[in-house]
Prior knowledge:
Elements: E1 36-45, E2 49-50, E3 53-54, E4 61-70, E5 74-82, H1 86-89, E6 92-105, E7 108-118, E8 130-141, E9 144-153, E10 164-174, E11 180-191, H2 195-198, E12 205-217, E13 220-229, E14 241-249
Antiparallel strand pairs: 1-4, 1-14, 2-3, 4-5, 5-6, 6-7, 7-8, 8-9, 9-10, 10-11, 11-12, 12-13, 13-14
Amino acid sequence: MLTSFHGKIAVSLALAGSGVALPAVASAQEEDSGPITVSANAALTTDYRFRGVSLSGGDPAIQGGVDVAHESGFYVGTWASSIDGGDAYGEMEFDIYAGWSGDVSDGVALDVGVLYYAYPTEELGLDTDYWEPYASVGFTLGPAEATVGAAYAFEQDSLGGDDNLYVYTDLGYALPSTPISLSAHLGYTDGALAPPFLAGSADDNGLDWSVGASVSSGILEVSVAYVGVEGPSIDGFTDDAIVGTISASF
Length: 250
């Protein structure tokens, strides 16, 4: 999605996300500290894959963020990652987001908000930053979880005057009596940020997917996932990859 991302600069857009599938209030070891909860997270990943596309050129990335949540469900947060964006996008993605999340019924949670993607180290003076409202519904049944969601980046100059719709579903299952969790993801992009389009195809829609597993211990989590996308396979950009991540939540 950046100059080196085969097409992002061509449409003057920014990638669609914060590592994210979609960013949400970061996981944390929460304590009873009154109506406001502050949490932080840090991670080292072998490849920053966002919706299947590598934004770190296939190389490792350092990531981290801070969230502030109110007991009412409203939250604000920031998240950043190192990227390989060349002069047009620089070496860092910096995201700011705000929204509301909470249970709407037993086992059903809603998360709605808006996210702003910024590239503060870009050197060409291009309009690369953009906005993306998002919403998701999560379902929990025992050790199993499922989430369906969507993010819509409306028409903006940074997207080449185009828009982008992303819809996805995530599945998770925590193996009982173990620290191991399994996960699967399927997403569909229609618009300026579609993986095939970013890889140089005329196709402006496509799928991304992943399957993975993680092990948690205290504040630490180690995960591995196989990630793939539709469209032309470009090494270090849209090729299938095995991604390992170690993260901590505070």
